[in-house]
Amino acid sequence: MGNIQLFPVQGSTLAPEVDHLLYFLLAVSAFFTVLIFCAIFYLAIRYRRRAANELPEAGHTGYTLEILWSVIPFGIAMVMFTWGASVFFNAARPPADSIQIYVVGKQWMWKLEHMEGRREINELHIPVGRPVRLTMTSEDVIHSFFVPAFRTKQDVVPGRYSTVWFQATKPGKYHLFCAEYCGTNHSAMIGWVYAMEPADYENWLSGGMAEGSLADNGKKLFESLACVNCHKPDNTGRCPNLQGVFGSTVHLTGGATVKADEAYVRESILYPEAKIVAGYEPVMPTFQGIVTEDQILQLIEYVRSLAPKPGATAAPSSPAAAETKTSPGAAPAKR
Ligand code: CUA
Predict the structure, then answer these.
(1) How far is the CA of 106 from the centre of ligand 1 (A)?
(2) Which residues line ligand 1 (CB under 6 A)?
(3) How many folded domains does the chain comprise?
(4) Shared-domain flag, residues 225 and 271
(5) pLDDT tens across 63-115, in order?
(6) Does one domain contain both 251 and 189?
(7) Is 80 in the same domain as 124?
(8) For the chain, what is the HEC assignment?
(9) Is residue 310, in this structure, part of any structural domain at all?
(10) Closest Cα to atom 1 of ligand 1
(11) 156 alpha carbon to ligand 1 midpoint, in Å?
(12) pTM score, two decimals?
């Protein structure tokens, strides 16, 4: 075979799982292909028409055979289903301690931002042995983030966040592709993922701190866009206090609730009237066309940074933040 590789290298914890399932599917397919071909030839010869006026015997139903060829394939299909579902759920659920990295796709490049502030284009540096969670969106059309060595491929869609996670298992340089036709230079929308030893990664990460972390830049935006004038940290503003909001359950006008995640914060910035927090007026203007996708990510990180740290008590300015989950009346205390 020379240099032609049948499979990409297994570069992530997910890769062997996906490959083992694929081998199983291939083996089952090969077994039945051979079985059916042999049966066709055997039966065609064994029961061929021998005389021009030959008539077939009256058949009888073989119940045992019919039950067997129904029950056995059903069992095999259920094995495929449960096995596939377990690999899928594993691939779809990032571990809680994942490193968070943001991805913005645009014609025709990948822009990647680390929480600590390092930004890259068409390159992604990650440490081995730690789960990495990507939160991805697009500035224009649908792209797809594809790293064959990690057996990971996820659509990157304008107007929403999709996530994918992986844990690299060995240091190396892996191809990154766009796997969704996105225009003239789709085939050039490629890059590299560099999986590094954790110490090397920390070194690399500290090489670009000058720009400030995502959350710091988000805070600056929050002030320069005057968000801070209404979203006051002491509950006296015309808009909700954002301390401790991220990750909590927010009660809305009309009685519905929503989990304050990335998508909710993004929607609230671009479509402020879509979901009004109970007790507040729809006074916030939209920021469509004012903030870029990159800046929205910075704002999200700033809001996330206001969330209570796990295990710590809520910020002094919002002692009720943690409790508002269960008491709808507590949120708009000021009004
Ligand atoms: Cu982006 Cu294809």
Answers:
(1) 8
(2) 105, 108, 143, 178, 180-182, 186, 189
(3) 2
(4) yes
(5) 898 999 899 999 999 999 999 999 999 998 999 889 989 999 999 999 998 88
(6) no
(7) yes
(8) CCCCCCCCCCCECHHHHHHHHHHHHHHHHHHHHHHHHHHHHHHHHHCCCCCCCCCCCCCCCCHHHHHHHHHHHHHHHHHHHHHHHHHHHHHHCCCCCCEEEEEEEECCEEEEEECCCCEEECEEEEECCCEEEEEEEECCCCEEEEEHHHCEEEEECECCCEEEEEEECCCEEEEEEECCCCCCCHHHCCEEEEEECHHHHHHHHHHHHHHCCHHHHHHHHHHHCCHHHCCCCCCCCCCCCCCCCCCCEEEECCCCEEECCHHHHHHHHHCCCCCCECCCCCCCCCCCCCCCHHHHHHHHHHHHHCCCCCCCCCCCCCCCCCHHHCCHHHCCCCC
(9) yes
(10) 143
(11) 9
(12) 0.68
